[in-house]
């Protein structure tokens, strides 16, 4: 009933992390800070504990949104923005998450706990953080419940999927000169700080008016989009660049291995299919094409989508560390398939069977969220159990081998 076949467990011992980070910001600004910051943590604290601490901070930010902006989860359109100071806490929380996410690997090397479990745990927390930050950043930008937020979710998850897909084929995590975990996060931190100072209305200004370029002949022919929508367009160009960059790295690796350079492209279809399912479900013809987007079901829908995505990329990372086959299908999608098909039955002249009214749609979305949560929780618990039992390590406890090769919980005074 586990996720790791017996014959793949042996590959866990062969795992070795490989990564490339070309970011100048990371090399010259952040890494010196991270190198100092990790020394503040006792050697008795496990790396995964540091990772989990960062994720819990993000959850605090998310629950702060729900507490100070409860109308965001209701049917009402008169959504009131959270107090200005809340956005500052989001900025601090996200920067703290980035820092803790960066030093967990350093802590793993300090304590001798580097291994496949650490990568699985790190990427799993990153996957959850991705959706939560989409919701928070969209709220800070004033996008709210809109297709722009959906587009942001697709673009952000696509970037994460590409990075994982690339790592599976190249054997290393590649971060370019501009990457989501470094510059992308710092941009979101800056957005939170700007919103905290000026308020969400700041992002409604037209970009060419704001930059005083609206009278330049060439610029005047371009759409004068609001700043928040312009940021989304910028993200689309960034996604396009990352697609090309990731494929070039995969192409180089496949050619070196004398393997097919086209097959990796087929392994992008799981994300395309899963995203298409969510969009099809959101395009509910029974309720003016956007019922879920404009209702209390929107945030639960995004969270369910994020959990399904975390399950999908979690299996991809597991395939990487165990050298297993790439997962092409995820059974948790069945709920999205049911939701999308049921919602679009009117296109074929039939009435929905489950989502017969807005209330039933909301109930089904929450049910999908519950199933997605339980599925991902099961995945996490089983994978942690399999890896810790096979390797004889602990998830949240630092352990050391004795002279006979037996693992024991290490005391701080025995660590060096």
UniProtKB/TrEMBL annotation:
Bilayer topology annotation: Multi-pass membrane protein
Catalytic activity: CDP-N,N-dimethylethanolamine + a 1,2-diacyl-sn-glycerol = a 1,2-diacyl-sn-glycero-3-phospho-N,N-dimethylethanolamine + CMP + H(+)
TM region positions: 33-65, 173-194, 231-250, 262-284, 290-310, 331-351, 363-384
Subcellular location: Endomembrane system
Key word Lyase present: no
Cofactor: Mg(2+)
Keywords per UniProt: Membrane, Transferase, Transmembrane, Transmembrane helix
Keyword Transferase in record: yes
GO cellular component annotations of the record: endomembrane system; membrane
Molecular function GO labels: diacylglycerol cholinephosphotransferase activity
Major localization class: membrane
Protein origin, superkingdom: Eukaryota
Enzyme Commission number(s): 2.7.8.2
Pfam families in the cross-refs: CDP-OH_P_transf
Coiled coil region boundaries: none
Pathway per the UniProt entry: Phospholipid metabolism; phosphatidylcholine biosynthesis; phosphatidylcholine from phosphocholine: step 2/2
Listed InterPro entries: CDP-OH_P_trans, CDP-OH_PTrfase_TM_dom, CDP_ALCOHOL_P_TRANSF_CS, CHOPT
Family: Belongs to the CDP-alcohol phosphatidyltransferase class-I family.
Name assigned to this protein: diacylglycerol cholinephosphotransferase
Lineage: Eukaryota, Fungi, Dikarya, Basidiomycota, Agaricomycotina
């Amino acid at each position: 009933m586990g996720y790791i076949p017996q014959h793949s467990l042996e590959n866990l011992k062969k795992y070795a992390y490989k990564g490339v980070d070309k970011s100048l910001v990371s090399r010259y600004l952040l890494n010196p800070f991270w190198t100092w910051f990790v020394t503040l943590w006792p050697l008795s604290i496990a790396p995964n504990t540091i990772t989990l601490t960062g994720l819990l901070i993000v959850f605090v930010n998310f629950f702060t949104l729900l507490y100070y902006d409860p109308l965001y989860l209701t049917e009402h359109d008169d959504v009131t923005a959270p107090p200005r100071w809340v956005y500052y806490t989001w900025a601090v929380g996200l920067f703290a998450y980035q820092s803790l996410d960066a030093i967990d690997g350093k802590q793993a090397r300090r304590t001798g706990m580097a291994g496949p479990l650490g990568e699985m745990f790190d990427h799993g927390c990153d996957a959850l953080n991705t959706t939560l930050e989409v919701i928070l950043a969209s709220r800070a930008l004033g996008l709210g419940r809109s297709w722009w937020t959906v587009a942001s979710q697709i673009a952000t998850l696509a970037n994460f999927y590409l990075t994982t897909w690339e790592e599976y084929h190249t054997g290393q995590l590649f971060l370019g000169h501009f990457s989501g975990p470094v510059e992308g996060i710092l941009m979101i931190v800056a957005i939170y700080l700007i919103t905290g100072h000026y308020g969400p209305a700041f992002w409604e200004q037209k970009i060419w008016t704001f930059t005083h370029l609206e009278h330049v002949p060439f610029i005047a022919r371009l759409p004068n989009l609001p700043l928040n929508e312009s940021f989304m367009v910028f993200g689309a160009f960034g996604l396009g660049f990352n697609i090309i960059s990731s494929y070039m790295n995969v192409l180089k690796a496949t050619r070196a291995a004398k393997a097919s350079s086209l097959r990796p492209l087929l392994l992008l279809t799981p994300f395309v299919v899963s995203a298409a399912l969510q969009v099809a479900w959101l395009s509910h013809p029974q309720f003016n094409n956007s019922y879920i987007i404009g209702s209390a079901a929107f945030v639960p829908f995004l969270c369910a989508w994020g959990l399904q995505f975390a399950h999908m990329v979690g299996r991809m990372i597991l395939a990487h560390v165990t050298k297993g086959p790439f997962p092409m299908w995820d059974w948790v999608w069945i709920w999205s398939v049911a939701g999308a098909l049921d919602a679009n039955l009117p296109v074929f002249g039939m009435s929905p069977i489950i989502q017969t009214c807005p209330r039933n749609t909301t109930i089904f979305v929450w049910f999908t969220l519950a199933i997605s949560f339980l599925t991902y929780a099961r995945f996490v618990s089983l994978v942690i159990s399999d890896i810790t039992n096979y390797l004889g390590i602990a998830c949240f406890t630092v352990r050391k081998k004795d002279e006979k090769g037996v693992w024991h919980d290490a005391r701080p005074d025995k660590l060096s």
